[in-house]
Specification:
With 216 residues, the protein is an all-alpha fold. The chain is built from 13 helices and no strands. Helix 1 packs antiparallel against helix 2, helix 3 runs antiparallel to helix 7 and helix 9 packs across helix 10. The model has no long low-confidence stretch (mean pLDDT 94).
């Protein structure tokens, strides 16, 4: 499958303006998209990080993730070592019991070949990867889509369950309510094959609106 190959800013603007004028106008005023789709993490490592950060504030998650990554022998980066790690060792990093179960579950899933490495993922479609991942404890569709966008560099992902994406669409269309995920999926189908870039701009729209509200 194709990794993100950023279109020129001119080509992306032209596409967005034709498909969704409000989004195209925002993209033009905001400036070039900086989404690269290459966070440098293998899928397994990206999922470990995602689970640690779930439902935690930034500094607390940073501290727990840092302790996990500093465990002797690189346990967190070795599926076999993580799967066999003593509960108390992982608990000492600040992880909850449910997160330990989720981490050891994805470690076993990597051992079993359910979670592909980046080379294996090249031969799988977006939906094939999502279908493999969402049965795993702690991994929902949103987490799988973030993996697709930020680690595997897929250019055509629209995370319609994401609050920021839905809020960005609402703001740009001056709507009273957010679209439901299925409605947003239908409304954004016209943005293919560059929906990942469109989603990035929707995040920026939501973020810009929030910042203006805080400054006023």
């Amino acid at each position: 499958m194709q990794r993100i190959s950023p279109p020129s800013h001119h080509d992306l603007l032209r596409h967005l303006k034709m498909a969704c004028p409000p989004l195209g106008a925002f993209a033009e005023s905001h400036g070039p998209c900086t989404l690269t789709g290459n966070d440098g993490l293998e899928p397994f490592d990206a999922l470990v990080r995602a689970i640690v950060y779930q439902q935690l504030a930034g500094r607390a998650a940073d501290a727990i993730y840092g302790r996990l990554m500093q465990l002797e022998g690189g346990i967190a980066s070795s599926p076999s070592a993580l799967a066999a790690a003593p509960f108390d060792l992982l608990r000492g990093c600040g992880l909850s019991a449910s997160k330990i179960a989720a981490l050891q579950g994805i470690a076993q899933a990597r051992i079993d070949g359910i979670i592909p490495d980046s080379a294996e993922a090249e031969h799988l479609s977006n939906e094939e990867i999502v279908t493999r991942l969402i049965p795993l404890r702690g991994i929902g569709r949103w987490t799988a889509e973030m993996l697709l966008m930020f680690s595997l560099g897929r250019p055509d992902v629209m995370p319609v369950d994401d609050f920021g994406v839905r809020e960005g669409w609402r703001i740009l269309h001056d709507a009273e309510k957010q679209l439901r995920p299925k409605e947003l999926a239908s409304a954004t189908a016209c943005l293919a094959p560059w929906r990942s870039f469109a989603a990035w701009y929707l995040w920026q729209a939501a973020s810009s609106k929030k910042k203006k509200s805080q400054d006023s």
